[in-house]
Amino acid sequence: MKTILSASVVAMAMTMPVLATDIGLRSAYGVQDNPWSRPYIGLVGGVGSGDLTLSADDSFGNSISGSQTFGGLSGGIRLGYDHVVSENVLVGGRGELNLTNIASRNELSVGGTTIGTVEHNLDWLAVLGARIGMTDRNMLYYAHAGAAFGGVSSTIDGNDIPGLIDNPRLGYSVGIGAEYAIGEHATLVTEYSYTDFAKFDLYNEAGITVSDDLSFHRIVTGVNFRF
Question: Which of 33, 72, 157, 208 could cross-link to 116 by cystine, CB 3.0-4.6 Å?
Fold first, then answer.
């Protein structure tokens, strides 16, 4: 009986790796047989929310400022390449381009009289960066960072404000995320990022400077197709 039991245990131990391979739940994918080391294209969409701080300064040292809530939706495409440098450590580079309606809306009043509704819109958002992560079975956990680019336009009652259309912005984006491999060529992704475009001068004439400072949080989900 002991001989039969021992033989059964050995047989089970030999077949477990094969079964694990079949269902895609190995403890760690190898460098050459994992779904991560390859280029990919992805589709993502999500929601963003943050603050837009407006400030005005004059040559006499006077200054006023105020903050507005900044939020909306975004959606876009990603291109990237990942490489597993050891059994579990992954590094990669990627770029993405999003269209957004992330915006702030506020009524502009002078002396108690409403002049109109001012809107500041983030029309598009692009990020070029890198990430580093750890794979665990079908999961990838990672941190990411990169340069962020955006175009902000301002309107009053839907009418463009001259000189404040598609102002290019430069900042940074950092965050964390996770991906789940649903097969060799597809992964589901959920990601958080914080983006900061820092202070930008909207107007600077006659000793008066009007600036804004835009930062926001964004949560996205999507799918990556690897090939």
Answer: 157
